[in-house]
Amino acid sequence: MDPRLPPLNALRTFVTAARVGSFNDAAAELFVTPAAVSRSIKSLEDHLGCALFHRSHRQITLTKDGQYYLAHLGNVFDQIALATQNLAAQRAHRPLVVCAYPTFIIDWLIPRWSKFARESAGLELKFVTTHTHDIDFEKSGIDAAILSDRLEYAPRMSEKLFMANLVPVCSPNYLPATTLASDDDEWGHSLLHSETRPNDWRRWAEANGNMRIDPFRGQRFESSKLMYEAAIAGGGIAIGLEELLQREFSAGSLTIAFPDSKPASCPFHLIRPASTEMHPFFQPFREWLLSEVNTKREPVKAAALQPSGINDRPGFPQSAALGLSQPA
């Protein structure tokens, strides 16, 4: 006897033929030919090393070995069918797990989704955050992610949602209004970084042709939210996504650092494994997401710093306020 498990199709054919008592009727039920049923049964008998049926011209009957085998296999396929139905039911009631950077979830996703969720009962989502750009979807149980660090996410399925603008921001009282992006010897030592997005200063520097600063030097924070709070408190100049800073711009707690600053483009993507396409909540969520990114909204424009007395700016380093350069 072959110690390996027999083919599942052969077992299914055997159980069906034994139940209906006919190779012809089994073939009709399985949508195959009677010859295919006969070959499958013969293959299984060769695998097991015993005969499972007594064959006659018009009928088949189980041998003693066949009766024993059927008694122990009879409900296996019912159990498989039940397990499959239960899995489908469980997935139907499992929320769609969506992962994104903390700031994106807090400042962009939740405010928009909360309004939609009130009007659309039955769609259940679970939001989780990430501080990395590499998501192990299967291991972590995540269905979809919204990320922006790469241009493509193969072999996962992905589509571009929108282009965001990277801009330097700071407290309105941090820089003299006349400070330009090209005056990097005055402000280049004051960079704030988010470890979630370690390449943003480099991207902005390249977009502005400004490579005299070290885009990786400065204070670091675990998340963009902490970095923004440090900038609000006068701790330096943060690099942020304009579309995620609307509340700070409206409140006047942050503003664009330089009047001549050119935004750097930053694409956001919706990424997921192919299996997520089968989740009952995914397509409604995707359609809502695409409608949101395609809806034209007037963003709050953060004004460039307005002139005022240098002595009114306690948050700005004294050496920069005097027009002196500090060591890099």
UniProtKB/TrEMBL annotation:
One Pfam family per UniProt: HTH_1
Keywords: DNA-binding, Transcription, Transcription regulation
A molecular-function term among this protein's GO annotations: sequence-specific DNA binding
Positions of the UniProt region annotated as Disordered: 304-328
GO biological process: DNA-templated transcription
HTH lysR-type domain sequence ranges: 6-63
Top-level taxonomic group: Bacteria
Annotated InterPro entries: LysR-type_TF_proteobact-type, LysR_HTH_N, LysR_subst-bd, WH-like_DNA-bd_sf, WH_DNA-bd_sf
Biological function: NodD regulates the expression of the nodABCFE genes which encode other nodulation proteins. NodD is also a negative regulator of its own expression. Binds flavonoids as inducers.
Family: Belongs to the LysR transcriptional regulatory family.
Name of this chain's protein: Transcriptional regulator, LysR-family
Origin species: Afipia carboxidovorans (strain ATCC 49405 / DSM 1227 / KCTC 32145 / OM5) (Oligotropha carboxidovorans)
Lineage: Bacteria, Pseudomonadati, Pseudomonadota, Alphaproteobacteria, Hyphomicrobiales
